[in-house]
Design a protein that fits this description.
The complex is a heterodimer of chains A (102) and B (565).
Chain A lengths: L13 H34 L1 H5 L9 H39 L1
Chain B lengths: L10 H22 L5 H6 L6 H12 L2 H14 L1 H9 L3 H16 L4 H5 L5 H35 L3 H48 L5 H12 L13 H15 L3 H5 L7 H32 L2 H7 L6 H50 L6 H25 L6 H24 L5 H20 L2 H8 L1 H27 L4 H20 L12 H18 L3 H16 L5
Helix pairs in contact in B: 1-9, 1-15, 3-9, 3-13, 4-5, 4-13, 4-15, 6-11, 6-13, 6-23, 8-9, 8-15, 8-16, 8-17, 8-18, 9-13, 9-15, 9-16, 10-13, 11-17, 11-22, 13-15, 15-16, 17-18, 17-22, 18-22, 20-21
The chains are: A mainly alpha (102), B mainly alpha (565).
């Protein structure tokens, strides 16, 4: 741990504010998307069974790719988060870290 | 198909089983030499990579119940089983977006470390440990009873013996090898389970020309188009919403899952591990659902349900039909390994709540030397392991299906709200946290007792079964009468009268059905909602300037990882 920390006023630091703001925004938006996917699916089952039973192809009703789609989209969303974090977030973290540790 | 050997002790499964036990015990011996400090015992010395931890998380989460149970549910109920499996995955993105990185940066060994970061240690540690222990105990009982039943079904081994073997092995892993051995048991299990399921799916799809359309076409030809459509699983939207909330946010509050994030060196690896875990678990559920539909077509619902009413033997039966005795033996051993990895992770999480949170955090007021803490953690491991075995035997033959749902409800209501508010909300106070945890805990446990899952299905199971039997008897009689009338070409009015009479009788009998006091099957919606609400209200009423001051410092550590251990 650095001893310079008390000197560095991160509360007003532009980069730190940007980083914490972006991280919250990305987390909240992705969480809401995931909630929409899953509870949208549950909502369809509860309120629109005929739609899920309608046939996508001759043999496969549309409900099956939709259910699998929720699973796949959950993986994709975590992938999007990791991609963002590895590229944008980590760069900002490094920037602020350098400032704090001098 | 040929006579199944499921339930017999087969040399192939015994051989695979011993191979697994031998190799995991070798790993435990290797790990024992590297398990002396608390950091090594609880967190494998933070030496696990993101990829390894991803596999271990998957190994910790994919229980035998989710493998055999979901395959069975799909094979007997079709699409409803698929709906059910989706709910088990959707919590993982939440773990990623809200929990993983701040948890890793702020804590040391347990999630209580994070909640206690800027709040008063003693009251937080006590309540958080209670939340952890209740979650772990219910989950552990469900796993032990499941283990005894499944092993009896697969190997023909007496229930008590199965519990004894599982209990002793899990104690050995955790006691001597700590987190390092537990992690490798989980990694090996995850690889075996994913590998075994993949082979089973390839064998299944080869029967359908590797065309999913062909598989679904055959399923709907055999069981009607309803088999591929949502059926009776979700009747009340509020019920479904409540269960969905518990599954989603419960995953983000399971102590044994949260603990795994301390085994990696930093937040970046923690993030990576959730990504791998989500991928592996998602892939696993897609495989399991395919196995379920495959078993329905290639083995047949009737054969599956003749061996086990719940359908739990669908996957083993399919393995036997497609890969013979050798493959069945392999899969049976994998199921055993699956149970062991999950119970070992649970025991370690429970032991760390007892030693790190209660013994050191509360009894010793945060001051204890390494040696003492490891010694207490080991004693807690033995204590928990023995209690798990005793409880497993005590609950033999009981309906424990509700216990997993309850564990998730407690995790979502007692653990998750306190954790997320302590990370995100500046004004969160000690009193608010304690009130939130106990509200969630008491409501989740209390409401499930008076819910249909326990009040009707466990406490009034006999009455329910009697009335269901009466209804089905009346239905058979009425149908026979209608047929007779139709055969005799009687007056259509007589037929409709008979049908109306049955309808009235059914209504009358249904009215006698035991009613639960609380209407929802899973209390998640109410208990989690109340935990958040009480936490917010009490925090606003008991402002804690000290904690608010520390929040800025906490933020720097949560985001940047400066000062993280």
């Amino acid at each position: 741990m650095s001893t310079n920390k008390a000197v560095f006023n991160f509360k007003d630091d532009k980069d730190f504010l940007k980083l914490s703001g972006q991280k919250s925004a990305v987390s909240i938006v992705l969480t809401i998307l995931e909630l929409l996917f899953y509870f949208g699916f549950i909502g369809l089952i509860a309120f629109n069974k005929p739609f899920l039973s309608s046939m996508l192809t001759e043999r496969v009703p549309i409900g099956i790719p939709i259910a699998v789609g929720v699973i796949v989209m959950s993986c994709v969303l975590t992938g999007i988060y990791v991609y963002w974090a590895n590229n944008t977030y980590d760069t900002l973290v490094k920037k602020v870290r350098d400032k704090v540790e001098g | 198909m040929a006579q199944s050997i499921i339930g017999q002790v087969h040399p192939v499964s015994i051989a695979f089983f011993f191979l697994f036990v031998l190799s995991t015990l070798c790993i435990t011996y290797w790990a024992a030499k590297r398990t002396r400090t608390t950091k090594e015992f609880y967190a494998a010395g933070r030496s696990i990579t993101g990829f390894q931890n991803g596999l271990a998380l998957a190994g910790d989460y994919m229980s035998a119940a989710s493998f055999l149970g979901i395959a069975g549910l799909v094979s007997t109920k079709g699409y409803d089983g698929l709906i059910y499996s989706v709910g088990w995955l959707v919590g993982w993105p939440i773990v990623m977006f809200l929990i993983a990185e701040p948890l890793r940066n702020l804590g040391k060994y347990t999630f209580a470390d994070v909640v206690a970061f800027r709040l008063k240690r003693m009251p937080i540690r006590t309540s958080a440990a209670a939340g952890s222990l209740i979650t772990v105990l219910f989950y552990l009982i469900a796993q032990m009873v499941g283990a005894g039943t499944l092993i009896k079904l697969m190997f023909g081994l007496p229930y008590e013996w199965a519990i004894l073997i599982v209990g002793c092995l899990m104690i050995a892993y955790v006691l001597f090898g700590g987190m390092l051995a537990t992690t490798w048991v989980q990694i090996i299990k995850a690889v075996l389970l994913l590998g075994g399921a993949t082979i089973l799916v390839i064998l299944t799809l080869s029967k359908f020309g590797f065309n999913y359309g062909e598989l679904f076409g055959s399923a709907s030809k055999m069981y009607g188009p309803e088999f591929l459509q949502p059926g009776g699983l979700i009747t009340s939207p509020v019920d479904a919403f409540s269960l969905g909330l518990a599954l989603m946010f419960g995953t983000a509050g399971l102590p044994h899952i949260l603990m795994r994030f301390y085994t990696v060196p930093d937040a970046k690896q923690a993030r990576k591990s959730v990504f791998y875990a989500t991928g592996f678990i998602g892939y696993f559920y897609i495989l399991t659902v395919t196995i379920g539909f495959g078993a329905a077509v290639l083995v047949g619902k009737k054969v599956i349900m003749a061996i086990d009413k719940g359908g739990n033997m669908a996957a083993p039966l399919l393995a036997e039909a497609l890969g013979g005795h050798v493959f069945l033996g392999f899969l049976a051993a994998v199921a055993f390994a699956t149970i062991l990895a999950v119970v070992a992770g649970l025991t370690l999480a429970g032991a760390s709540a007892l030693s790190h949170d209660l013994y050191v955090g509360v009894l010793k007021r945060g001051q204890a030397n390494e040696k003492d803490e490891v010694r207490v953690a080991k004693m807690a491991t033995i204590g928990l392991g023995v209690s798990a075995m005793l409880l497993g035997i005590l609950f033999k033959g009981q309906n424990v299906a509700f216990m997993v749902g309850l564990a998730f409800a407690v995790a979502a209501s007692a653990n998750f709200p306190a954790l997320v508010m302590s990370i995100m909300w500046k004004k969160f106070s000690t009193k608010g946290a304690v009130a939130s945890i106990w509200t969630g805990l008491i409501l989740a446990v209390g409401l499930i007792i008076i819910s249909p899952t326990v009040w009707v299905d466990v406490f009034h199971a006999k009455e329910k079964a009697t009335i269901e039997k009466q209804i089905s008897e009346a239905e058979t009689q009425s149908k026979a009468k209608v047929e007779e009338l139709e055969k005799a070409a009687a007056d259509p009015k007589a037929v409709s009268d008979e049908k109306a009479a049955f309808g009235a009788k059914k209504k009358e009998l249904s009215a006698q059905m035991p009613q639960a006091i609380f209407p929802l099957k899973n209390p998640g919606l109410i208990s989690m909602g109340a935990a958040f609400l009480i936490g917010i209200l009490v925090s606003l009423m008991s402002s804690e300037p000290e904690a608010q001051e520390k929040f800025e410092k906490e933020k720097l550590r949560a985001y940047i990882g400066i000062g993280a251990e």
